[in-house]
Write a structure and sequence with these properties.
The structure holds two protein chains of two kinds. Chain A is mainly α. Chain A has one domain. By secondary structure, chain B is α+β, with helices and mostly antiparallel strands. In chain B, 44% of the residues lie in helices and 21% in strands. Chain B is built from nine helices and twelve strands. The longest helix of chain B has 38 residues. Chain B starts with a helix and ends with a helix. Classes of the chains: A mainly alpha, B alpha+beta. At the A-B interface, helix 1, helix 4, helix 5 and helix 7 of A face helix 1, helix 2 and helix 4 of B. Chain A: Its main location: membrane. Chain A: InterPro entries: Cell_shape_determining_MreD, MreD_proteobac. Chain A: One of its GO terms (biological process) is regulation of cell shape. Chain A: This is Rod shape-determining protein MreD. Chain A: Belongs to the MreD family.
């Protein structure tokens, strides 16, 4: 029964804030194109691990924070992150059963879709990447997924987050 | 094994709340998506969300500072550890540079004086130097397809939207978003940015648009026969009433005359080091319109003439010698005071 009472939930918030930090940290120019979707990655892990603690509203709020940080239209990243959350939650039961490699492929689809919506929104506001590079962050994120999930699982077990 | 068991356990507790309480996933997505879209539209089209947004911006600076912390720490340690010889070499270099700049400054003083004299001759208002405020870069926009930076001065320092930003070598861009303690600057090379410029050599006007490449601007709609050459310096013309005139913007690097194109293709390299500068200047320009400025300078001129006239009348009343020549003097005295000695000379 103790599984339902919240324990050490602050770890989730701290890790999400860390993801927010990573998403604006300076990177060399050539890596800037493939900046991983840190917020989406971290959010996905917590959604899969503890769907009773984080949900769409959490994702939306963090998306708004990302908008303020990036100077994007208020609601742009919020919409994207909500969409990712929706997809992950609806695939939730299957995703948990998949091995890591298969999870990567599914997440590539999810993040790719999110990037596509991001591209549309960017095109509406006027700055549009000229080529297919908009898909690069999704690929990088999918490749990073095993490591991110391993680290976060270690964190979760270390602090007994529930 | 342990993990699997806890995982299964969590699953058991998860599925129930997911399906029993609260609206379904689709409904939640719909509500939040509509909310996001509404927010985006309001943010893009109306102004009443701006204050809220700029207040939220308070969190921006600490987060960018934290994000930059590893870089700053690394720079500090390398600075601490940099060898004595390196420091000596840098010192030497800076001294030479200072000498060169001093020489230019001397020349500049002479030129400024000349400029002031010429302006006096032209009857125009005195040359007013723009007020500036030094600022430091604190962050770069993470989106690689826009060229925007964050600076550490904001509303509290009097920064306003549209304010021009310079570095040591030329114009960098303009402020597009103001937060309490920081501001966002759109650089010249952003694809959304254009600036009215003038060729310094002959005054040819053009518009320099950003290309998304930090090392390139393009001049739009330049006639094929226009007198523009590689190496020409482009300065801001001040015609958009946003940037002050006369600051260097770019040097022309390529002029392509293609008979298949209606206009010449002119490319230029920004003189400011857009992706290297760390310290910048915010320029506070005169907020008056050109008409106001002209009227005010004209009024000042009239007042000065009046004063000169009165002085002259006083001296005339004091000495009271050549009455007829004094009576004709007021007519030319309407002209600037520099012409006043001219009619005096033949009288002597």
């Amino acid at each position: 029964m103790s599984a339902t009472s919240p324990r050490n939930v602050w770890v989730i918030w701290v890790s999400m804030l860390f993801a927010l930090l990573l998403s604006v940290s300076p990177l060399p120019d050539f890596m800037e194109m493939g900046r991983p979707l840190w917020l989406a990655l971290f959010m996905t892990y917590w959604l899969l691990a503890l769907p009773q603690r984080v949900g769409m509203l959490t994702a939306w709020c963090f998306g708004l924070l990302a908008d303020v940080l990036n100077g994007a239209l208020l609601g742009q990243n919020a919409l994207i992150l909500t969409l990712v959350t929706f997809l992950v939650l609806s695939l939730h039961q299957r995703l948990r059963m998949f091995p890591l490699s298969q999870q990567c492929i599914v997440l590539l689809m999810v993040f790719g879709l999110a990037q596509l919506v991001q591209l549309w929104l960017n095109a509406l506001t006027g700055n549009r990447p000229p080529t297919l590079v908009f898909i690069l962050p999704a690929v990088v994120s999918a490749l990073l997924w095993p490591w991110v999930s391993m680290i976060l699982r270690w964190l979760q077990q270390r602090f007994g987050v529930n | 094994m342990q993990l699997f068991v806890t995982g299964g356990c969590v699953e058991e507790f998860v599925i129930k709340p997911l399906f029993t309480k609260g609206p379904s996933l689709g409904v939640r997505l719909l509500v939040l998506a509509v909310l996001s879209v509404a927010l985006m539209v309001v943010d893009a089209r109306f102004a009443f969300l701006k204050p809220f947004r700029s207040q939220l911006g308070v969190i921006v600076e600490p987060i960018y500072w934290l994000g930059n912390l590893p870089v700053t720490l690394w720079e500090n340690t390398t600075q601490e550890l940099s060898s004595r010889t390196e420091l000596a070499a840098e010192n030497e270099k800076l001294k030479t540079e200072q000498l060169l700049l001093q020489r230019r400054l001397q020349k500049l003083a002479a030129l400024t004086e000349q400029n002031v004299r010429l302006r006096e001759l032209l009857n125009s208002a005195a040359l007013v130097d723009d007020d500036v405020l030094a600022t430091e870069l604190i962050g770069i926009d993470p989106n690689p397809f826009t060229h925007r930076i964050l600076i550490d001065k904001g509303e509290k320092d009097g920064v306003v939207i549209g304010q021009p930003v310079l570095d040591a070598r030329g114009l960098m861009g303009q402020v597009v978003e103001v937060m309490p303690y920081s501001a966002r600057v759109l650089l010249l090379t952003d694809t959304n940015h254009s600036i009215p410029v003038q060729v310094n050599r002959n005054g040819l006007r053009a518009i320099a648009s950003g290309t998304g490449n930090p090392e390139r601007l393009e001049l739009r709609h330049v006639a094929d026969t226009a007198d523009i050459k590689v190496g020409d310096l482009l300065v801001s013309s001040g015609l958009g009433q946003r940037f002050p005139s006369g600051y260097p913007v770019a040097t022309v690097s390529e002029v392509i005359h293609d008979s298949g194109q209606p206009f010449a293709i002119v490319r230029a390299i920004p003189t400011a080091s857009l992706n290297r500068s760390r310290y910048m200047l915010l320029v506070f320009t005169d907020t008056r319109t050109p008409e106001q400025r002209a009227t005010e300078s004209a009024e000042a001129e009239v007042a000065a003439d009046q004063k000169a006239l009165e002085e002259k009348a006083e001296t005339a009343a004091g000495s009271n010698t050549p009455a007829p020549s004094q009576s004709t003097a007021p007519a030319p005295a309407q002209a600037p005071s520099t012409t006043a000695p001219a009619p005096v000379r033949p009288a002597q």
